[in-house]
Every structure is written in C-alpha cells, then in structure tokens.
Specification:
716 residues; mainly alpha; two-stranded antiparallel sheet; rod-shaped
Length: 716
C-alpha cells in the first residue's frame, strides 16, 4: 500500500511537470496497446452482433409479438440467425483474430443463443407439454417441421465450438414422432380393412402377367408412400433416429402380418379338411354290417360325378393361386422396402456429413424387421398355403372320387360282398368313358395340376409400388399335366414346355423362384393324395373290403402315383418333384400295401404274438399292431377267419385303435418339419427351410424283422 501510494505521487508529479512544460502525453506501451485493441474488438463484435439481432427482429416485424411467435416466424428468424452465425465464424472472427481473444466468437454465439431461447421459450414449452392432445401433436409435427433443419444446423455449429445446443430437437420431436407412429398404425388398420372388404381375390391385370390381388398392391403402395413421407423432413436436415425407422417398419409389418393371418384364418388349416375316420361296425354289431349300402353308394355316384369334382378342384387352384401370387409379391416388396430404407438412410448420413457432422458418430443403417423376420414369416405362410391347396383339392373337391368311390366292391341289397369281384375303381384302372385308357389318377389330377401350372406361370416381373420395380420377381409357376403313356411311364410334355417358358423370361433367379413355388404347390397335392390313400386303406369304413389278392392292384397304384409326381419324360429327365422325395413321402403307403398282401392267418398270429414286440402305434413304421388290426377289420365282411378273430379279440382291438386315434397320422408331420420345403438340387433331394430352423427330412427304414415274408416280396 505504501509503495502504491508513493508510486501514485511520483506519477502525479511527473504528469504535472509534463503539463507545465507543454509536452504531449507519452505513447502507450505494446502491452497496453494489445489490451486496448482486444477490448475494442470485443466491444465492436458484441455491439455488431446485438445490432444485427435487432435488425433481424425489425426486418421480420417481430417486436410486437416477440414472445408469441408463429412457427413460420421462428423458422425465418432461426434461418437468419444461422446465416449470421456462419458469417461470424467464417469472416468476422478470422478477421479480428489478431486483435480479439479466442473466446470473442463464443461470447457472440452465447449472446444470440440467450436471445433465441428467450423468444422461443413459449413455443418450446408448448411442444413439450405433457397435456398436449394427440391431434395437437400431429398438427405440431407438421407445423414445426421446417424449424428443425436450420435449428439442427445451428446446434451442430454450437457443438463444434464446445457450446451447448440451443434446444434439444430430438427430445422435443420424440413424443411427436410416437404420436405419429400410433396414428400411422390406426391409418394402416383402416386402410387394410377397407382394402379387405373390396377384395374379390381376382388377379390384377391377368393379361399382362400381373396375377396378385389388389389388396397387396394397395398395402405396399401405402407402406412405400408412408415411408417416403416419413423420411422427407430428414432429407432436408430434420431429425431422424434409427430407432424411429425401426418402429415405423415394425408398424408396417404388424399390418402385413395381420393381413396374412386374416387370410390364413379365413381359409382354415389343412388338417381340418381331412374327413373324419368312419366307425367300425365290426366292433359293435357284426350282424348289421353295411346293410342297404348298395343303394346308397349308387345314389352317391349318381349325384357326384367325377367331372364336376375335377372342375371344382381346378376352380380351387385358380382361386388359391391368386393368394400364392399375392404372398410372393409381398416377399418381393419387402425386399424393395428394405432397399428403400437403406438408400434413404445412406442419403441422410451423406447429407449430415456434408453439413459438418462426424461420419464416425453417425448411427449405422437400421436393421428393421422388414430386413430380417418379415420375409421369413410371409414365406412360412406361403408354404402353409401350399399345404392347404393340396388338402382343399384332395380332401374336399375330390372327396367323391377318392374318399367315397375309390376301392369299393359291388354289394348286393343285403350288403354282402363278393370277395371275387374286382376292386374298382383303382387309381391305375382306366377312368369311365376314357377312350385312350387314361388312368383315374391322371383324369383326377391332370386338369388340376395343369391349372396350377397355367395360373402360376409368368414370364415377366410384376410392377412394384416402391421405387424399384426390378426388385419384384416374376410370379413363379409351372404346368404339371400328364399326357400319354411313354415307355411305361406317364410323362409331362406340357410341363417341359412350361419350364422352358418360365426359364426364358426372367433369368436364373426367376427360374429358381418359379421352381420353388411350383415344388411347394405340387408337394402339397402329393402329400394330400398319400394321406388320403393311407386313410382309405386303413380307415376306409364299412364300404371297403380288402383281400390279399388286392395287393398287386394297390401296388400298381402306388407305382403310378410315384411316376406321376416325378414326371420323367422319354429321355428320363425329371420335370416334377425329386424321385427321392416322392419315394420317401410314399414309403409308409407302400409298407401298408405290403401288409395287405399278407394272409389273414399271418396277420392275426403276429397281432397276438407277444414275442413279436410290435408297437401298438408308430407314426412312421407301417408294421404296427394297430395297422394289423385295421387290415383284418377290412376283411371281416368277406373272410370268415377275419370275422372270427374280430369277434374273439374285440376288446383288444378297441384298446389298440383308441390308442391309434389319439395319435394323428399326418404325412406332412411325418415327412417334413414345420414349413420345410424339399427342393430339387441336381439329381438328389435337398432340404430348404421356409423358417430359420434347421432343415430335417424324417426318413424311416423298416426293421428287417418287420418286413413281410419273402413270399410276399417275390410276388411283388
């Protein structure tokens, strides 16, 4: 303090002496000049910044309603402020850098951020109000959308300087986006309901090869347009998170899945179409067996002609093929929607990086359920529809020729059967009225599978409601029709022509898609036919009586069935399903036919032999006690030994058959796991799953001791 006072007195004395002599004041030192210039530069910049803010308010005429700005006013003010901030950072700050301190620009930015928050606080608080109604949130999302791009640009500039953001844009927009998603779900649901009510399941533009239903076109047009609108603000710099994209994509799949489930529920399950097993009068009252049956069967044959059944089956194929095309279209468009999301996100990231964002800090492209999950779910439904198609055709449309008429012997008015009368009709016997000896199997399925190929065949890709039409594959298909017996086999000349047409229009991928859908649809018919034959042979009811002499005719039917679905041409080329697959599916059926060739004495002896250790039931092995018992039951009306055995072992038979009835005998479940699709690969059969589970084909090799006697094998 003493030194300071002394110094002040010395300085005052020197100043008085200078003035007394009339000398000019001394020049400032370099250090004093630097401080002076810094203070002047800071003052100039802050004054200029404040003045520019006032000029902006005057230009926009905002002073009268400074705390009640409309969205458009705040947007314009924010855009001008961003321009000023860029000008300050790129022009004025570098120019004054030799004179002003490093934090001068930051002080200017703080000045502006404080004033911007003051004028926008009311609007920001309103947008974040928890009591904001759903309609107000939807309105706000559209009204305030132009604000977010310039505000986000300002935020990035501030963050780059180490300053806090002017506003948390993502925090403000997130509840608005949640309301948008909920509203979008409601809109999707309403549009689906309207499209479903309009739908008549008729192919769109059949003459042009576009064979899907209108409902799926409407749905994916809705999805693609909604995603396009959803990304539009982000394309201009608005906020966007991968989480939001995933949520909107999930809403699209929710509605698509609802559509697919509704279609499946409307059709029902393939298992529910299988006719119920008939009762066994032999186990109740042998004396009243099938009396008066002859009159009933004649009436039934008169009412339900085969041509009518085949026509109905062809109509079923036509209707269900539209649904198959629709599901295939969905799978293709899911790929297009996924690509649209990827492209939109890549463009969004590129814009952000160009605007100064760090590429390393950007979120990766969202992996939505449309990328993984949705295509597999729709493919599984497509596979289910193929199973349903086969079941509907065989179990319902062809029920008369198969379940009601096949393998029925003539009976007299008393219901007695002449075991010497021929077993007719069989699948390999010429159909009634056939001039060229066409077997019944071919008559029943030629038009059905030909219609299947005709409706599935397409040599051009359908258009896409999304931006890239080339991603939608052509509607796959074949024609599987048998025409003429060549070299002991029923070949498929129509099939070969269809395969050539399908392969020539869309490249390797199109040909593969065609083959996959064809195989799945034909597979459904094969499985249903085998299921029907197993049911008829083991649970044919009182109208069917079999004797050992029927086995050669039944074996010929099995062989014809295999040749028909393999469909080799004269050169031996397979045009149908892989031979290994057809053999495996019909393997148990062949075993049942072998059982039916055994004499009654051997059947009954093995049934009661405890040392045989036969299982009562088995889903794959045909040599079981239940099957032996059912073969004997089908002989009781014509074979005294079988009739006597049923009478003496009635309780035992009832117990065994009750155990069998508790276990469904499903060819599909026995041969395929879930939605597995056996696909041809070269000369062998490989398994490709429609779901993500590991593919497995269940194969059973009968045990040696359960094989019928050598005498039976030699007779075959």
């Amino acid at each position: 303090t003493i030194r300071t006072a002394a110094g002040s007195r010395a300085a005052a004395a020197a100043e008085a002496e200078r003035k007394g002599k009339g000398l000019p004041p001394p020049l400032p030192t370099a250090e004093e000049l630097s401080v002076l210039l810094a203070e002047q530069a800071r003052s100039l910049l802050r004054t200029s910044a404040a003045r520019r803010w006032e000029c902006r308010l005057q230009k926009l005429e905002l002073h009268a309603a400074l705390h009640d700005l409309r969205p458009a006013q705040l947007v314009e003010l924010t855009e001008l402020l961003y321009q000023d901030a860029v000008l300050e950072a790129t022009v004025f700050a570098p120019a004054f850098a030799p004179y002003a301190s490093a934090d001068t620009l930051d002080s200017v930015l703080r000045l502006w951020s404080g004033r911007w928050r003051a004028v926008s606080s009311s609007a920001m608080e309103h947008l974040q109000d928890a009591a904001l109604s759903a309609s107000d949130k939807m309105d706000a999302l559209g009204e305030w959308a132009p604000l977010w791009p310039p505000l986000e640009s300002l935020n990035r500039l501030y963050v780059a300087r180490g300053l806090p953001r002017l506003a948390d844009v993502y925090g403000i927009v997130e509840p608005l986006m949640a309301e948008y998603t909920a509203n979008l779900t409601t809109r999707f649901d309403d549009e689906l309901e309207a499209a479903w009510q309009r739908e008549r399941w008729e192919a769109m533009g059949l003459a042009d090869g576009h064979r899907h239903a209108a409902v799926v076109w409407d749905l994916f047009t809705l999805f693609s347009s909604s995603l396009d609108v959803f990304f539009e603000p982000a394309r201009h710099g608005g906020p966007m998170l991968a989480e939001w994209v995933e949520t909107v994509a999930a809403r699209c799949f929710f509605i698509l899945n609802k559509f697919v489930n509704r279609m499946r529920q409307e059709l029902g399950s393939d298992a529910s179409l299988l006719p119920p097993k008939p009762s066994y009068p032999e186990l109740q009252d042998l004396g009243g067996l099938t009396k008066g049956f002859a009159t009933g069967i004649k009436s039934l044959l008169a009412e339900q002609g085969r041509k009518k059944s085949v026509l109905q089956a062809a109509n079923t194929v036509g209707a269900l093929c539209v649904r198959l095309h629709s599901l295939s279209f969905c799978i293709a468009q899911l790929d297009a929607l996924s690509a649209m999301i990827d492209d939109s996100w890549a463009a969004l990231v590129a814009r952000r990086v160009a605007d100064g964002a760090s590429a390393a800090e950007e979120e990766p492209s969202p992996t939505t359920i449309l990328h993984a999950g949705a295509p597999e779910a729709v493919a599984a439904s497509c596979a289910e529809l193929c199973w349903f198609l086969g079941a509907k055709v065989v179990y319902q449309d062809l029920k008369g020729p198969l379940f009601d008429e096949l393998y029925c012997r003539e009976r007299d008015v008393s219901g007695k059967v002449d075991p010497r009368s021929p077993l007719k009709p069989t699948l390999s016997s010429p159909s009634a009225g056939s001039a060229d000896g066409t077997p019944l199997l071919v008559e029943l399925l030629e038009e059905v599978l030909g219609k299947l190929g005709e409706d599935l065949l397409s040599d051009s890709a359908p258009p896409s409601p999304t931006r890239d039409a080339s991603r939608a594959p052509a509607s796959p298909g074949i024609a599987v029709a048998m025409s003429g017996r060549e070299h002991g086999r029923w070949s498929s000349s129509v099939l070969a022509e269809a395969a050539a047409e399908a392969g020539g229009g869309g490249g390797a991928q199109l040909e593969a898609d065609n083959s996959e859908l064809r195989d799945a649809a034909v597979r459904g018919v094969l499985v249903a036919v085998v299921q029907a034959l197993e049911r008829i042979l083991l649970d044919g009811g009182p109208r069917r009586v079999f004797v050992p002499g029927d086995a050669p005719s039944l074996l010929e039917d099995v062989q014809l069935l295999r040749e028909f679905f393999v469909a080799r041409d004269a050169e031996g080329t397979v045009h149908g399903l892989a031979e290994e697959e057809v053999d495996l599916v019909s393997e148990r059926l062949l075993g049942i036919v072998r059982l039916m060739h055994l004499p009654t004495g051997e059947l009954t002896a093995r049934f009661v032999d405890e040392a045989e250790r036969l299982p009562d039931t088995d889903e794959r092995d045909p040599f079981t006690r239940a099957n032996l018992g059912r073969v004997v039951l089908h002989r009781a009306a014509a074979d005294p030994a079988a009739k006597a055995f049923v009478a003496s072992h009635r309780a035992w038979l009832q117990r065994v058959l009750q155990r069998q009835d508790a276990k469904p005998e499903s060819v599909r479940e026995r041969c395929y796991s879930g939605n597995m699709l056996l696909q041809r690969s070269g000369s062998g059969a490989t398994v490709a799953a429609a779901t993500s589970s590991s593919p497995q084909l269940k194969v059973t090799t009968p045990e040696a001791e359960r094989t019928p006697s050598s005498e039976v094998t030699q007779s075959f």
